[in-house]
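Q: Focus on the chain.
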Amino acid sequence: MKTLVNIFDPQEPSAAYLFLKQYYQPGDRLLFISTRQDRDNVAPYASLFHIPEEQITIISFHRSQDSYIYERICRRLRSQLSQEVAYWVNLAGGSRYSALAIQHVFEQFNARFYYVQTRENLIVSSVFDDSIYDNDDTVEPITYRMTIGEYLQLHGLTHDCDTRPHTPIRSYAESSYIFECFKARRLTEKAYATLELLRLVYRGSRRPVEIAAIRNGSSGRRKPAPAIDELLTQLAFVPKKAGQLSPQELDYLTGGWFEEYVYHILSRHVKPQQIAIGVRIARPGNHQHNNELDVVFIKANTLFAIECKTGVATDHLFNEIVYKAVALKETFLGLSCRSYIFTLKNDYDHRLFQVADMMGITLCPKGTLTNPDKMQQVFDAIIRQSHEF
């Protein structure tokens, strides 16, 4: 049996996780090297692997001189290691300085060295010797594929992936038809006004709403929308139950259809391992920061988060959407996550694209979504970013 060694990095926990998934065998022990402040974040590994705590060792350093003075790092590590153990050491993670010290110490023991390149889904096995011409370094692809739930749990997040459906309620043909209506601006002004009323007044309703009540208003408290039938006809939308709209259907009409359209086109053209709509995430114990991912998918261990917006009225509102996407990436989803914004707003002068690009977000505006050649370029870029082999 062997001991698998990882430098724990809270900014990129996938490197350690994929290393373990690639090489862990029952009976192996795990050794994590971390700062004292990060040691509690190692817990997800034990739960995801169902490994008893007694098989996991953590060597932790204070965020002080112990974590950046070379000699202190070496002395501390050497005192914890054994010549009787075979160590497989993953040098990905942490600072370059600490990795140098860790490599130096483990070279004095029975150790093999690896480097996990998560961006390219590869693991490099290296032999550190005096010869650089014998080609004894090897590269192998990471064969394991994470689920969305695994990725989120690994980043210390709670989620509802397994507690409710995250699939479309309508077919691709239906969402595609509505997309074509918006693309060609087929809706009348009355239909657009009715759609806005549904968004402002009825979206988020917990109970079905009678179409007659929408048409006529209700007890003077809600503005009537006499064009509701016109809207449903123009969108070719037939309610599941005649005469009423369910909460899910109200959400669908006021923007959910666009999330489903994006879900369908990504499923068809990108072919992710898993894709979901409306996944809610949060930090354990922090209910003030619950967030919902419009469309999220994972392909070759790379997570993609898509914000879907049918309309963005002002530049200020667009900037808020960008800042939200950046905050989700940096605070919740990790730096390796790829973030996109799909919107039906036009970006004629590419100004919005530049704002998003400066923040590390890729924008797909109406001009891209309605152009098959440009969308194929987006799909190809996503596939390249996932490094699927």
User: Anything to note?
Assistant: The first helix runs from residue 14 to 23. Residues 1 and 80 are 18 Å apart (CA to CA). The mean pLDDT is 88. The two ends are 30 Å apart (CA to CA).
